[in-house]
């Protein structure tokens, strides 16, 4: 007989697991919204401060907008969205605008494909391409929040 106890999920009594799931259902959406909000505030402040590591990427994606205007304006929008996500008001409108903003990041694949794909091959992503493509997860997270309803 082993001195260690097996703590796999199968050994957790169903009632205890149900309570844990209930807590997750209550806490997870707020944690998800808060973490996305924190990212938006952080990344937005970097743009406003002129310290964003993606400044060249953003400028290449929207070359018709003057860089001196684009980065601070985009950063300010991201800060406002982030704060709104952290505060949770207005919930639906903020999530819709956040999803639209995240979808806009995929313009890199249209406007600056050389930055996203190696040798023009869409199956061979560059680090920038991977960086942008991961926003698909954030879009889905925002859609999940948009589709979830608060229960009283």
Question: Could you explain how this protein is built, in words?
Answer:
The chain is mainly alpha-helical. The protein has one domain (18-147). Helix content is 69%, strand content 5%. The protein is built from eight helices and two strands, in the order ααααααββαα. The protein has helices at 14-48, 55-61, 67-87, 91-104, 108-111, 113-116, 127-133, 135-147, and strands at 117-118, 121-125. A two-stranded antiparallel sheet has the order 1-2. A hairpin with a 2-residue loop joins strand 1 and strand 2 (121-125). Helix 1 packs antiparallel against helix 3, helix 1 packs across helix 8 (135-147) and helix 4 (91-104) packs antiparallel against helix 8. The mean pLDDT is 90. Keywords: Membrane, Transmembrane, Transmembrane helix. The chain crosses the membrane at residues 30-49, 69-88, 95-117, 123-146.
Overall mean pLDDT:
90
**Regarding quaternary structure, how should these chains be classified?**
single chain
Neighbour order of strands in the largest sheet: 1-2
Structural class comes to: mainly alpha
Order of helices and strands: HHHHHHEEHH
**Rg of Cα set:** 20 Å
Q: What is the general shape?
A: globular
Fraction of residues in helices?
55-70%
Fraction in beta strands: under 5%
Separate helix tally: 8
Largest sheet: 2 strands, antiparallel
Number of domains: 1
Distance between the termini: 48 Å
Poorly predicted runs are none
The count of β-strands is: 2
